[in-house]
Inverse folding.
């Protein structure tokens, strides 16, 4: 499997890609060694398709504070898991982005 | 007398919105040179990308659980980072967008670490707000710009100025008082529209916006009347921008006072 993440990184750092017209993106991507389906997903910015191709789970990214009164009424040390508690393995949430 | 600092440290860094494009050289250096890196990002492609930068990266994703208060989740994130700082390690928390914007855990982690005598600071980055100004061609300095988290604006009587821009964040969750849900529906959004209708006509054009996160992705920019927000598809990453609805009102009294000061200055020369 070709390096999709590496390609996305290089594309994100190369002004050439931001100037390729939408109708020409697939032609430009055809020079890569990626599967045609992946080329199509990249060309259309289809994040879900890329995640499926790479076997990745969608993430939740919310970091916003909640209600003001709930923010400060509890010491952060009181409620988290104990020092010997391991981090859970995976979130079961549906994908969400956020504002920041 | 020399005050010695404990060996642990924390830096919370901002990796920007778009994979590959927005990360600064300094932020990348922090990620690459820290002993342990915690990742709080919104999509798995970006997470995979960041995981390549350091052999000890740990996703904060597993702390999200349906039915658990988000504040509880955020406290667990802070605790996880602080535990490593207290163990004397050089810790980095890497968060998408700007890690200090609409993000509780990075601020709290830095505050707590500093309170315990550790070195801790934040590195800024490109936020969704920055992308919004570029993609929509808005200069917040032209008419002014208010930003509110949508639910907070509903819970409290805020003073909206319809002569400037209004940007509402997290509209997909508008009206959620439980902090345990990850979306609310049309009935909740109707309440939001009713709140906005105090200051805007229902046919006033608003914009649903979502920044692009991948290089060839296009931002979501959808214009619609305020009344149609109720039925629109709006998810947590979407932002609602409300352009000015009224002209700015001149303040003749203040202008007269300023003119008098100008005259006073001129007379004294």
């Amino acid at each position: 499997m070709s390096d999709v993440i590496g390609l996305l990184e290089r594309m994100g750092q190369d002004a050439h890609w931001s100037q390729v017209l939408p109708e020409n993106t697939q032609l430009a991507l055809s020079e890569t060694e990626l599967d045609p389906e992946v080329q199509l997903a990249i060309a259309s910015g289809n994040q879900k398709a890329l995640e499926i191709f790479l076997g990745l789970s969608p993430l939740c990214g919310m970091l916003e504070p909640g209600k003001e009164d709930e923010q400060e009424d509890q010491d952060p040390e009181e409620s988290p898991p104990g020092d010997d508690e391991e981090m859970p393995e995976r979130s079961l949430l549906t994908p969400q982005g956020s504002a920041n | 007398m020399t005050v010695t600092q404990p060996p642990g440290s924390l830096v919370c860094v901002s990796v920007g919105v778009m994979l590959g494009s927005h990360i600064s050289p300094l932020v990348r250096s922090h990620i690459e040179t820290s002993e342990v890196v915690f990742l709080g990002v919104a999509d798995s492609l970006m997470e995979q990308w960041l995981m390549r930068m350091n052999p000890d990266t740990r996703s904060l994703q597993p702390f999200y659980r349906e039915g658990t208060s988000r504040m509880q989740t955020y406290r667990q994130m802070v605790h996880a980072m602080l535990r490593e700082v207290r163990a004397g390690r050089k810790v980095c928390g890497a968060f998408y967008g700007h890690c200090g914007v609409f993000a509780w855990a990075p601020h709290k982690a830095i505050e707590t670490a500093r309170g315990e005598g550790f070195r801790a600071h934040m590195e800024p980055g490109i936020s969704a707000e920055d992308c919004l100004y570029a993609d929509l061609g808005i200069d917040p300095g032209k008419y002014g710009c208010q930003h509110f988290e949508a639910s907070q604006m509903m819970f409290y009587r805020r003073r909206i100025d319809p002569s400037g821009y209004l940007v509402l964040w997290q509209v997909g969750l508008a009206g959620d008082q439980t902090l345990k849900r990850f979306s609310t529906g049309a009935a909740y959004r109707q309440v939001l529209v009713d709140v906005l209708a105090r200051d805007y006509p229902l046919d006033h054009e608003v914009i649903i916006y979502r920044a692009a996160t991948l290089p060839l992705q296009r931002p979501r920019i959808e214009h619609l009347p305020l009344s149609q927000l109720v039925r629109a598809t709006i998810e947590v990453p979407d932002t609602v921008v409300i352009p000015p609805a009224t002209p700015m009102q001149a303040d003749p009294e203040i202008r007269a006072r300023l003119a008098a000061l100008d005259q006073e200055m001129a007379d004294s020369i």
DSSP finds nine helices and ten strands in chain B.
